[in-house]
Amino acid sequence: MDSLNALERVQRYMIARRQAKHTMIRVGPFTVLLDADDDGFESNLAFPHTPATEAPEQWLAPLRAAFASHGRKPAIQWIVGYAPQLEATLQATGFVEHSRETLLVCAPGAMRPTPALPGLTVATITDASPLADARESLDVNEFGFDPANAQPATDEQATQFRATLTTARAFTARRDGRAIAAGMYTEPHAGVVELAGIATLEPFRGQGLAQALTAHMAQAAFANGCDLVYLKTANPVAVRVYERAGFQPNGEDLTYVASR
Fold first, then answer.
1. In this predicted structure, what is the pLDDT of residue 20?
2. DSSP states of 130-194 as a string?
3. Contact at 8 Å (CB) between 78 and 95?
4. For residues 178 and 111, what is the distance between their CA atoms, to the nearest angstrom?
């Protein structure tokens, strides 16, 4: 796999999957995508669409103005290897690191054999699936990530989630009929897709479920015409799990936010 080409494709995917649902403003080397209904910074981000080698004097003030026009705080997300000079530039211009995750990528030929887990089946959830299946997948995901504070999904939440699965897909892993792990891949664009929300219920962790589910979802994406699957995590243990499924670390995904 061409490492630099993969980074560029992931960077462009990060922009493409958000364009239809956001207001787009081009500012120098950045595409600013703003959500009129959600003021959370994760829904209002700028992404470099070129490696951002221009001096900040050429784009910093217009970038801040684009976010201010919607009452949003500037935030920038990018793959480090795609724009290697950007981090130092942002640190020098009033931005601070918010998150740093390992980027892992996988192509069809890189998949590794996954040990068979007796009694395990994986259900695929689409926009045509029963509402109960969408709700179940949501619940496993929520309780897998935050068992102490999670609440069961409402019919409204399940309906909204199911409606997003026209080309995206959710997956629920069941053992002997009980849902115990879940995840999804997001909308494919230009042969690229992201795996997200991979979670296992606490009593069933450490049994190879995350590896099996990750491999299953990647294979489903490849079967659907994708040739590059990626995911991100800040958890070193999860990195090793994904490596066992055939994913390879390929740099870092950074998000920086304005401190002033």
1. 83
2. -HHHHHHHHHHHHHHH-TTT--PPPHHHHHHHHHTTTTSEEEEEEETTEEEEEEEE---BTTEEE
3. no
4. 27
Q: Domain residues of the chain, as ranges?
A: 3-102+253-258, 108-226
pLDDT tens digits for range 105-148? 999 999 998 888 999 999 999 999 999 999 999 999 999 999 99
The CATH superfamily of 3-102+253-258 is: Gcn5-related N-acetyltransferase (GNAT) (3.40.630.30)
Q: Which CATH architecture has domain 108-226?
A: 3-Layer(aba) Sandwich (3.40)
Tell me, yes or no, if the pTM score tops 0.85.
yes
**8 A C-beta contact, residue 232 and residue 104:** yes
H-run or E-run covering 112:
none
| One fold for 3-102+253-258 and 108-226 | yes
Question: With a cut of 70, which residues of the chain have pLDDT below it?
Answer: 1-4
| CA neighbor of 111 nearest in space, from 180, 210, 212, 34 | 212
Q: Enumerate the β-bridge partners of residue 255.
A: 77, 99
Q: For the chain, how big is the Rg over CA atoms in Å?
A: 19
Please report the pLDDT score of residue 209 as a whole number.
96
- Extract the tokens encoding 260: 């002033």
Nearest 5°: the CA angle 95, 101, 105 is: 130
What is the reported pLDDT for 41?
85
Q: How far apart are CA 168 and CA 207, in angstroms?
A: 27
Q: Nearest Cα to 238, choosing from 166, 191, 183?
A: 183
Q: Residue 246: what pLDDT?
A: 96
Q: How far apart are CA 31 and CA 22, in angstroms?
A: 11
- pLDDT for res 39: 92
